[in-house]
Write a structure and sequence with these properties.
By secondary structure, the chain is of the alpha+beta class. Helix 1 packs parallel to helix 2. Helix 2 links the parallel strand 6 and strand 7. A six-stranded mixed sheet has the order 1-2-3-8-6-7, with helices on one face. The protein has a two-stranded antiparallel sheet with strand order 4-5. The longest helix has 18 residues. It has a single domain, classed as RutC-like (60s Ribosomal Protein L30, Chain: A, 2-Layer Sandwich), CATH 3.30.1330.40. The chain is built from two helices and eight strands; from the N terminus they run E-E-E-E-E-H-E-H-E-E.
């Protein structure tokens, strides 16, 4: 089987040397994704001070933006949110769990993929949440 790299023009540009997703057979492996807006490169709800340190963020907006970016990548790869098998979620503050889970639940009403949520010390780009998924190609 062939390995296919997916870089969606509808998703934010990668911050490093990686593809938005890799397809192998019927499986799609989406790289860790955040809420950065594909057009403005801004994280919704994020406010930084003059030295670039995070002073305020909105985990609901970041969760929504992250899932919308994942949705765009999956559609570019020939799939959808309904075909996700597994989600790994990284939060910089586990106190955000309830709010993130509230937004997350609106995206997965009928399909409830396997999920792991872990707290991490930091994420690149001043983000507060990152998700990676494995999905099935349609």
């Amino acid at each position: 089987m062939k390995i296919e790299q997916i870089n969606s023009p509808l998703a934010p540009k990668a911050l490093g040397n990686y593809s938005h997703a890799v397809v192998y057979g019927d499986l799609i492996f989406v790289s860790g994704m955040a809420a950065r807006d594909p057009k403005t490169n801004q994280v919704p709800g994020l406010e930084l001070d003059s030295s670039g340190r995070k002073i305020k963020y909105d985990i609901r907006q970041e969760t929504r933006g992250t899932l919308e970016n994942i949705k765009r990548i999956l559609e570019s790869a020939g799939s959808s949110l309904a075909h996700i098998l597994e989600v790994n979620v990284y939060l910089t503050d586990m106190n955000d769990f309830a709010e993130y889970n509230e937004v997350y639940s609106t995206y997965f009403v009928n399909n409830q993929p396997a999920r792991t949520t872990v707290g991490v010390a930091a994420l690149p780009g001043n983000i507060s949440i990152e998700m990676r998924v494995v999905a099935v190609k349609l």
